[in-house]
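A further point concerns the way the authors explain their paired sequence and structure data. Each protein is reduced to its one-letter sequence and a matching series of backbone shape codes. An entry of this sort, consisting of the sequence and the corresponding backbone structure tokens, reads as follows:
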Amino acid sequence: MESPLPLHVCHVNNLSVILNKLHAFLHCIAIALLIYYRASYLLQETRAISIIPWLLVFASELLLSFIWLLGRAYLWRPVSRTVFPERLPEDDKLPAIDVFICTADPEKEPTFGVMNTVLSAMALDYPVDKLHVYLSDDGGSPITLRGMREAFRFAKWWIPFCRRYRIKTICPQAYFSEAESDENFGDSEFVTEKRKIKEKYEMFEEQVMKAVEDGEYGNSRNHSTIIEIIQDTSGENETIRQADLVEMPLLVYVSREKSPEHLHHFKGGALNVLLRVSGVISNSPYILGLDCDMYCNDPTSARQAMCFHLDPKTSSSLAFVQFPQKFHNFNEHDIYDGSLRSGYRLQWPGMDGLKGPFLTGTGHYIRRESLYGNFKHKGIDLAELKDTFGESNLFIKSLHQSYEHKNVNGENLSNVLQQETEVLASCSYEHQTKWGEEVGFSYQSVSEDFFTGFILHCKGWTSTYLDPSRPQFLGTSTTNLNDVLIQGTRWASGLIDVSISRFCPLLYGPSRMSLLLSMCYGEMSLFPLLYCLPLWCFATLPQLCLLNGIPLYPEVSSPFFMVFSFIFLSAICKHLQEVISTGGSVYTWRNEQRIWMIKSVTSHFYGSMDAIMKLLGLRKASFLPTNKVLDNEQVKRYEMGQFDFQTSSVFLVPMVSLMILNVAALVCGVIRMIAVGNWDKLFAQVLLSLYILIINFAIVEGMIVRKDKGRISPSAILLSSVFFVTFLFFGSIILI
């Protein structure tokens, strides 16, 4: 019998694999020679300079070499994939999907944008009776609930319009903002219909904005449970023509109970509440996770994901299909690396060749069963199930795949089911259960997505990465330095939480997954710490030694100078090659180098310290949502390619202090080379300061040249100067 056509195919770029391994081999040889040079100096009986700066620089070189070595695992076998959704079975045989959307603060996450994400999810090209959309409102805001009702009312016009004319941009805000490019534009009926839908959209926008102006934000830290299946009671159905009266996806508003006396575990806790509540309402076998600002940009993402989940060869072990995060608001400058190019164009495809990528917080279709641990198998008694999942008998019944609740009549919950969902969403339900530990999304880290994916891979599950030419999901990227660094601090803290716990990927992973996959998880969890420490060293110690005339690198005439030069140029050229090969430019490379340096000495450093303090019990875990409200002045500067330095002195002072130090070191080093004539001994340190200043010229420009509102404030420069003088004074005493 002839085998059916495949639902997807995998492509391996063999040339890229060969070049990556060749580069890694040559770079490793150079690192070995560097280690030999440093070690041989340390073994000398007499030394020309103090051993302290030498040891610190050597330790930093070892740390950078180690994190570089871990990162080679990404390049071991990168793959890409193609899917064939037209080969899927008929609609009546497709599995159901629940969509989870999380929002927490209507002030930082504008309600109108959140509702557009909800509408885009409802408009997915998928059987409507198998599509259920849940919104978790952790702020408990009446504004969000009213916005949901308005969104449902507009959806009755929007969804039939999208389906009838096969609209690809299914987010109404994006659709009505883009240039006229509809294939049906010449159709007079389409033009008339579009005009009518746009009028309805403007009414919807007006109603939501009015709700925002008139409504109350609520108490995000202390509120009771509200669960409501959204339905339209306005009677507007009468005005919709009979041909457009289509069935609507189920839309559910969930605001879990929150109390200051109970831990709520941030986004991970909200997702687990959605997991339980949806389990007794729709209990779909697959779940689409979305951030509230990450709207569906293509109606076919669900069908593309099902090409993997329904593949009989891989589906039994496949936990999730991950799509990349892409953004609609970053420009060609991308000065803050908002596109996350390295992650989604290199790291995720690389991991896809090693049993699958990380789980990211949005744009993934995850299998519900994978989140229930090993407790779904038959033979486990009821008492053990209740110890694991809680006291709800109805939820425990939902663990069986054949379970389908019959108490949802039309769009109303029965009284029994309403009470049950409120219990499942209460803040005390998880007490003395294994939620967040062995089942559901993990509470080990504020980066619940990363750690949950890691545990799934440790349990033997696999994942898949798909990056189609048309972005399946589009979100809002950060466009000012303050939000970039706050977000980076939160991410760094969450990653370091994992690396310094008993679940450290390099210790916990190798016995449970492949070594290469463990290296990928190890690199991702450790990079904030293993980059911030060496970069702080390389941005201060060689410069301090240069100011005091102390050489730290081989003379230009030494053969080992070529070794250091090769390592430096090899790393830079490899990064440039990766940028160019993924569609970037030299400016992209420069911007990524700069933001890497800035984050390493600020947000990665603070995030690492935050994680260590939490481990020592000196701090409690916290979560600050990224601001999604756009400031017009900041957006204008971003579009011009200008940094916006309106951020805290906590971030500014380290950056500015290091610039002052490197300027002083460069000037002093050049004078020393000319006056004393020992240019060959200090050349490498002068070159290092020059490179740092060239890459980070935007900071120098913000200090000296710019006079606009986004410049670095004089008070920050003054404070940084004091910090620089203090460091120079005590540092020189230690060296001398």
Q: What stands out?
A: The mean pLDDT is 90. The CA atoms of residues 153 and 232 lie 6 Å apart. The domain at 97-179+186-234+245-472 is CATH 3.90.550.10 (Spore Coat Polysaccharide Biosynthesis Protein SpsA; Chain A).
